[in-house]
Amino acid sequence: MRQLLAAWLVIDEHDLPMNPRLLGKPGVGKTTLAYAAAKRLGREVFILQATVDTRPEDLLITPVIEGAAKLRYVASPLVSAMLRGGIVILDEGNRMSEKSWASLAPLLDNRRYVESIVAGIKIKAHPLFRLVATMNDDASTFDLPEYIHSRLQPQITIDFPERHEEMAILRENLPFSDDQVLNYVTDFLQHAHASDERYTVRDGVNIARFALKLASSESIAPNTELLRIAIEQTLGEEALRYVPGR
Ligand SMILES: Nc1ncnc2c1ncn2[C@@H]1O[C@H](COP(=O)(O)OP(=O)(O)OP(=O)(O)O)[C@@H](O)[C@H]1O
Ligand SMILES: [Mg+2]
After folding, report:
1. How far apart are CA 94 and CA 138, in angstroms?
2. Which atom of ligand 1 sits closest to the CA of residue 32?
């Protein structure tokens, strides 16, 4: 959080904000962190969910037909943030093709503008505009070219949380759960992290939530049998080897 907010600071009239990139495995909290940092600044937050088929115009401006012989030009979340001095989270940015990234190159250096070919205009970013990109380090993604890499700095890597952090995240998401369930799921996750398994806190939240629902539906207290069922149905049978006490 400190690094992300520091990267966005402007410390002199000749200074520019940076465009940080949050890196980490799926589900470690990249989007959550980006959103929390943006909220801390008290600005409007816009999220643009990138996919493999996000086109340059999806990032900038799209024409929409409005009635007979009438076109309306609609700003993307990114351009909305540029105009209003908000913060844009370019989520899962590494899924996007080089062609789409190329349309953002001038925005990400000292020019701080984009050019919409569709609308035929140049749009300058508000001085308060800030950008953060999140990226998974999984295989289903594009390798970004160097000129984009060098514009998305600094790189902030998010690792798996420590035990007490993971416990706190679970408690935050499931405040109605008793500690026994949270402890069990935390042990399971920590055990899996130690073997470099890809299971994340999101999986942990789902496991605990499902076990609690199963218990509630049978009007019984949550027990290890229900937790095992929840683990198996969330992550598959092979996950059972990380069950605590085995
Ligand atoms: N620090 C945190 N505080 C509270 N909840 C958290 C925290 N970190 C992660 N979580 C929980 O874990 C889940 C996964 O987090 P998030 O969606 O931010 O991960 P991600 O890295 O963006 O995942 P993906 O790569 O799948 O997009 C969230 O739904 C959130 O509930
Ligand atoms: Mg995310």
Report:
1. 10
2. 18
Helices marked H in the chain: 2-8, 30-40, 56-59, 77-84, 98-102, 146-149, 163-173, 179-194, 201-217, 224-235
Q: 11 CA distance to ligand 1 centroid (A)?
A: 30
Neighbours of 104 (CB within 10 A): 23
Predicted TM-score (pTM) of this structure = 0.89
- Dmax (CA) for the chain in angstroms is 69
pLDDT averages per 10-residue partition of the chain, 246 residues = 97 96 90 95 96 94 90 95 98 91 95 94 97 83 83 93 94 96 96 90 96 97 96 96 86
What phi and psi, each to the nearest 5 degrees, are found at residue 115? -120, 120
Q: Which residues of 150-184 are buried (b: 16+ CB within 10 A; e: fewer)?
A: ebbeeebeeebbeeeebbebbeebbeebeeebbeb
Give the DSSP H/E element, type plus range, for residue 125.
Answer: none
Residue 156 CB–ligand 1 contact under 6 Å:
no
Distance 27 CA to ligand 1 centre (A): 5
93 CB-near residues (< 8 Å, 6+ apart)? 21, 50, 101, 133, 134, 135, 152
